[in-house]
Amino acid sequence: MVNCLNFLSLRRILAAVFALGLLGLMGCATQPERPALRLTGDPIIDGNAHRAAAPVQDHVLWDYRIAASALHAGQPEEAKLHLDTALPLIGGILANDADAKKARSLFSAESTKTFIGEPYERVMAYYYRGLLYWRDSQPDNARACYRSAQLIDSDAETAEYKCDYVLLDYLDGFVSAKLSADGSDAFARAQANAKQLKLPAYDPKANVLIFAEYGTGPRKYGGGEYGEQLKFFVKNSTAHAATLSVNGQTVSLPAYDDLNFQATTRGGRVMDYILGGKAVFKRTTNTVGDVALVGAFIAANNGSRDGDRAALALGAIGLIGKIASAATTPRADIRMWDNLPQRLSFAALRLAPGDYPAILEFQDAAGKTLRGLTQTITLHVDPADRDTVIFLSELKR
Amino acid sequence: MNNSLRLLALASVAAPALFLAGCATGVESPSGVPLTEMKADERGFVAGTGVESQDLVTVSDKMARGVLAIPEIANAKQTPRIVLESVVNETRFPISKDIFLTRIRTQLNEKAMGRVRFLDREMMKTLERERDLKRNGQVTASADPSVVEFRGADYFLTGKLQGLTTKTSKGTSDYILYSFRLTDARTSEIIWESSAEIKKQGLEDAAYR
Fold first, then answer.
1. Which of B8, B22, B95 lies closest to A107 in CB terms?
2. Which residue in A286, B38, B77, B185 has the fewest CB atoms around it within 10 Å?
3. CATH number, position B197
4. Is the pLDDT reported for residue A362 higher than 50?
5. Is the CB of B152 inside 8 Å of chain A's CB atoms?
6. B7 assigned to some structural domain
7. Nearest CA of chain B to the CA of A355: how many Å?
8. Structural domain containing residue A214
9. Could you tell me if A345 and A256 are in contact, meaning their C-beta atoms sit under 8 angstroms apart?
10. pLDDT tens-digit series, residues A124-157
């Protein structure tokens, strides 16, 4: 009789554990419902709608995307608005952050942290803001952006990939040269990173600054057994170079920087070790769960009362192991700035104020013009007392 | 039997505990965080290693006191006229550069009691247009508009922000040197110069490293 009661209690306890486990799993899935978005096809309007509906942790991600779309659409003020929202966050010290703490915990995904992006994404936020500062006749603030951007790249794992953006140093020096300061150190660093590619000497009197970009940037995905490894899908884009024909001259716009290269030469992150640990925990608890459940099955088939009890105990352990394993989320954060280019270029030239018809052409690796990508544009050169910044992109959205 | 029961009891406690620890992904601060009003010279809970409001207050207060104390201003027989020139930013932090000069000017205007005057060169285009309207008789004038009354500067006040940055696995450290100077417009002599330096450092959460 007593044994029977104990057996019933055991069953109740086991049922309670199971129910709690289920409740836990259900509880983990709660997210506030978000209203369905009405998309218009305009990347800026839609981006803003997405941003408004997104959790606060994703705001910077949308700010990045909208800023790039705005630049592509020739809306610098919109781009500025979003970059100015993002930069104070990515430029600060993110410590004692509850979301980050959560992202490091076993049962929350890395993507619960506030998105600030991988280094190449943060670099691009500064790079874009820099050209917008320059456009607003604040070249020293532009230079500040290039310096901050290069600093972001200073903690790559391998020394040769630290601070190796060519354009960031080149533009840093160029601003200094234009402000009658010495830009030679920055130029030397840029030339060292450019390797065989010979950089044009600074022309402080150049008043038209062309920032060009082409190709499609890196894409993130989760590798490893549980998607715990942040990996990048990089495709060598067709456009390898560009030229701008304007006012009887052909301006070369070679690829000085490659974001695919930058994304894949960073080395490991501290977060990768944390995610690796989560993956090990997930695997171990799963194995423990499997072993305990198999043991429970064998014990249950033993036919004795003791065997039943052992089966229940092992079953409970197995269940807990399986639930803990299922609840552990080692997935790497693969939220990404998805409208970045692959290649970055720059050229500076002198043009008198006025409007100039121009043709932008892109070339493949063999130097052959990619006809479908050619753009006919008009360059508007501002009055001579300020620099004119022109942003050219192969990307449309 | 007792062992099995204990095991199960432990399991029944461990399972919810695990989920309580893991299931913190719901809404953060559901009641929100109340608005916190800070003093401008107070360090907030949102901070970086760059130029912040408390630095602005500290630096501009120091500079305003410095300008007022120099003999050329304190003992001037005629009220000196000062023009503000844009600050040069050589740091890695994009900043609203003229905010320093604006605060120094407002501090001086508040504390100098008329001992210095600032010339509003930002308004020159508007002022010239107004003067031309007066000269053309399109608007009334309280004085002869053909007489040049725009004052020239006795001094130029400007500054420079320079920085040094170190970033290692232990964190990021930024040193910023704020230097301001007052230059005699006639002789090009620097009659006053002062600086303030601020160093900050911090280490980001491992999730962002």
1. B22
2. B77
3. 3.40.50
4. yes
5. no
6. no
7. 26
8. 43-272+332-393
9. yes
10. 999 999 999 999 999 999 999 999 999 999 988 8
In a domain? residue B103: yes
pLDDT at A27 over 90: no
- Which residue range is the domain that position B190 belongs to? 48-203
Based on the structure, what is the number of domains in chain B?
Answer: 1
For residue B39, is it within any domain?
no
Which residues, 6 or more positions from A195, have their beta carbon under 8 angstroms from its beta carbon?
none
On average, the pLDDT of chain A sits at 90
Q: Is B165 on the interface with A (CB under 8 A)?
A: yes
Nearest CA in chain A to B3: A313
- Examine residue A256 and state whether it is found in any structural domain, yes or no: yes
How many domains are there within chain A?
1
Contact of B118 with B156, CB cutoff 8 Å? no
Whether the per-residue pLDDT at B104 is higher than 80: the answer is yes
Is ipTM over 0.85?
Answer: no
Residue A345 forms part of a structural domain: yes
∠ Cα B194 B120 B182 (to 5°): 20
Residue A325 lies in a domain: no
Residues paired with B117 in a beta bridge: B81
B166 in A contact zone (CB under 8 Å): no
Residue in chain A lying closest to B205 (CA): A95
Distances (CA, A) of A108 to A71, A111, B1, B21, B155: 35, 8, 37, 10, 61
Quote the CA–CA distance of A339 and A82 in Å, as a whole number: 15
B5 touching chain A per CB within 8 A: yes
Say how many CB pairs under 8 Å bridge A and B.
Answer: 183
